[in-house]
Amino acid sequence: MAFTTTMLSWSTLEYGKRLGPQLPNARAAIRWATDYLLKCATATPGKIYVGVGDPNADHRCWERPEDMDTVRSVYSVSPSNPGSDVAGEMAAALAAASLVFRSSDRQYAGLLLRTARKVLQFALQYRGAYSELNRFGSTFNYFQDELLWGAAWLFRATNEVQYYNIIKSLGADDQPDLFSWDNKYSGAHVLLSRVSTQDNYSVLEFGWLFP
Q: Among its keywords, does the record have Hydrolase (predicted)?
């Protein structure tokens, strides 16, 4: 869900001027998701909620949501049960969406950005893979790509040197071969390649990232 929200926000940023009367609908779809992500990130101090329901039981249940009676277990990450992969992606989603709303709702954009900062800090401070602990929603790239992705979006949203330094510290020298919910390297490379000198950073400064 967070990855989809990030991509919908990126698409709106890139092509919003071509959406015409559909731009408000795009913003509404993004806000529907980010309202939920904000609740997940702020409902309980020290926790980020990341899932509801047993995925194995849900995948075997071919019914309408109104008729489902499978267990609605709630899953979360915390300092003792880290999840840098889901937290990094959530930070990316919130940061990207903050750019979408910057011109239309500055107060909401500010809330998204403040929360994105906190979520990425959580992902960096308490490192570990949520998918490894829970054995579903498995990711084959561990969590380095989500940390890079989240830091790249916060760098895009803030232009702050701290996120530039985080990106450099992560290395992220994997050779990107695809882009998906499970592998963000290519997307992060494209996003960072678009940084311009107008933002006080030259694309050449990211030469270490593009071998």
A: yes
Q: How far is it, in rounded angstroms, from Cα 39 to Cα 144? A: 25
Cβ–Cβ under 8 Å, residues 93 and 3: yes
Q: What percent of the chain has pLDDT over 70?
A: 83
Contact 12, 26 (CB under 8 A): yes
| Separation of alpha carbons 132 and 75, rounded Å | 14
pTM for this structure?
Answer: 0.85
| One-character DSSP codes across 80-119 | TB--HHHHHHHHHHHHHHHHHSTTT-HHHHHHHHHHHHHH
CA distance 109 to 107: 5
